[in-house]
Amino acid sequence: MPPRPAVLTKRTLDKDLEKLTRTEDAAKHVLRQLVAPGLGLIFLGLAMLFAGVYVFDRPGAVLVVAAAALAAYMAMNIGANDVTNNVGAAVGARAMTMGQALVIAAIFEILGATIAGGEVVKTISSDIVNTVQVPQAAVGWIMMAALTAAALWINLATWMNAPVSTTHAIVGAVIGAGIGAVGPEPVNWRVMLEITASWITSPLIGGLIAAVLLYLVKTLIVYRDDKIAAARHWVPVLVAMMAGGFMAYMVLQLTPHGRFPSFTIILIGIGIGLVSWLAARPLILRQARDLENRNSSLRVLFRLPLIGSAALLSFAHGANDVSNAVGPLSAIVHSVGIAGGAGHPPLWVMLIGAFGISVGLLLFGPRLIRLVGEEITKLNPMRAYCVALSTAFTVIVASWFGLPVSTTHIAVGSVFGVGFFREWYTRHSKRRIAYIRRKAESFDIDEPEDPNIHETRRRYLVRRSHFMTIVAAWIVTVPVSGALAAMIYWVMFALFV
User: Fold this and answer.
1) By three-state DSSP, how is residue 187 classified?
2) Following DSSP, what letter does each residue of 316-335 receive, concatenated?
3) DSSP class of residue 5?
4) Closest CA to 322 of 154, 114, 153, 73
5) Residue 4 in domain
6) How far apart are CA 419 and CA 216, in angstroms?
7) pLDDT tens for residues 227-241?
8) Cα(41)–Cα(69) distance, rounded to whole angstroms?
């Protein structure tokens, strides 16, 4: 058989195909980063089209359509930055996956915004700056400038991994634009002083309540000889506290002020708490069967209560903070003479805010969810539950006294409160030391000692760098958004008025 002739040409096809494959992979990597911004732009276009359907034959339709786009952009930034407070703890504690958290938060944000969001729009649209003292033609441009400035600042804060208050951003922007337009006279400085006071009090209260709750959990459940028996008794009680507290909060939000006296609201909360205890007790008993007497078993019993608290907190957040996006839009709708403006926005206005928050959460939320849930301090389901319940209770108490508070400040303050309490408790708890000694004696160890004691003395349980970054972002939010809004108003006035 004659030998095969030698191939004198180079086989370049495989090499060329390999180069093309690598080029395609690089292109996909670059394009993948553009998917979220592209989808965001599509949503802005849909929001403009949605608003145009309702106002195309009305005077000032162009202004309203442009404001709808800005409100949608603001809502997406709220979803990207602010909603992390609701599900960040649950994700950090591994009670739910990132995908589950995004879907649950998106659904309950929409429900909260559309069902209970209409009553909280009035403060942003007309109470911060008295629109009666402002020329009607200037109201629209003031709110346009405020929306643009607040959204840009929140977008920057999200990019910097700083969970700032969207409430304070829009409040500062409305004040700054109002001062830039007509001076300081129409500004309600009493409201501003209350907000300033809440910067200090709400994170401290949230952190304190979270620390107290964690102390109770550790004392009543974690450091007991029979953890599972203690959990069977106390976890339904904690679920009842959560359900009763959230129901009292919902009554405050869903009904006009003064319709129900405080005693009636307390009775409603107690009644719902009792029903929740009766429902949770058999469920916890069933989950506790065959569980080993160890801390990892407690995570199973705290998982469902934590998921429920995250969902309810998302509903409450949607009901409250949707006004940060649609409050200025509602004022603009009212300023051009369309019925159902300030205080009672049309349904289409609420839908833009509700879906905008969910779109922002789904596209851009995971980044800060990881920061709040994982990078400040380590969270397990017990600690995360304390954070969620503390945030809810602090909002309830603040609403009771009429204090304008920020969900962001309270949630992040609660996370820090849990972390700082863990540092103190690890070093000073006599119950913990006695528990470790009993466990060591049961294993016949001559010199019982916490195996982590040297590590816990050497390191902190809270990352101080995140603490300083977040506090700095809180301090500068109102002045930065206010100054930016004033400059944007002057530019808009020079170009369009």
Assistant:
1) strand
2) HHHHHHTHHHHHHHHHHHHH
3) P
4) 114
5) no
6) 15
7) 888 988 898 998 888
8) 10
> Is 198 a member of any domain?
yes
Report the predicted TM-score, pTM, of the whole model to 2 decimal places. 0.73
Number of domains the chain is built from: 1
Q: Are 318 and 112 in contact (CB under 8 A)?
A: yes
- Residue 192, CA distances (Å) to 151, 164, 397, 404 in order: 20, 17, 19, 9
Token duo for residue 221? 């459940």
* 372 domain residue, yes or no: yes
166/152 Cα distance (integer angstroms): 11
Task: Print the domain residue range for 387.
Answer: 38-428+460-496
For residues 170 and 74, is the Cβ–Cβ distance under 8 A? yes
Q: From CA 449, how far away is CA 111, in angstroms rounded?
A: 51
The Cα–Cα gap between 364 and 358 comes to: 10
Tokens, residue 279: 């429902």
Tell me the pLDDT tens digit for each residue of 169-213. Answer: 888 888 898 888 888 887 777 777 776 777 778 888 888 988 998
Main-chain phi, psi angles of 187, to 5 degrees: -75, 135
DSSP 223: T
- Tell me how far apart the alpha carbons of residues 248 and 135 are, in angstroms, rounded to a whole number: 40
Residue 55 lies in a domain: yes
Max CA-CA distance within the chain? 105
DSSP state of 118: G
Q: Which two tokens stand for residue 251?
A: 């009554």
pLDDT at site 341: 46
Q: How far apart are CA 414 and CA 386, in angstroms?
A: 8
Does pLDDT of 119 surpass 90?
no
C-alpha 491/C-alpha 189 separation (Å) is 25
Residues in the chain: 497
Given a contact cutoff of 8 angstroms between Cβ atoms, the answer to whether 489 and 180 are in contact is: yes
- Give the side-chain half-sphere CA count within 13 A for 463: 14
Phi, psi of 189 (to 5 degrees): -70, -20
Q: 233, exposed or middle or buried, with CB in 10 Å at 0-12, 13-18, 19+?
A: middle
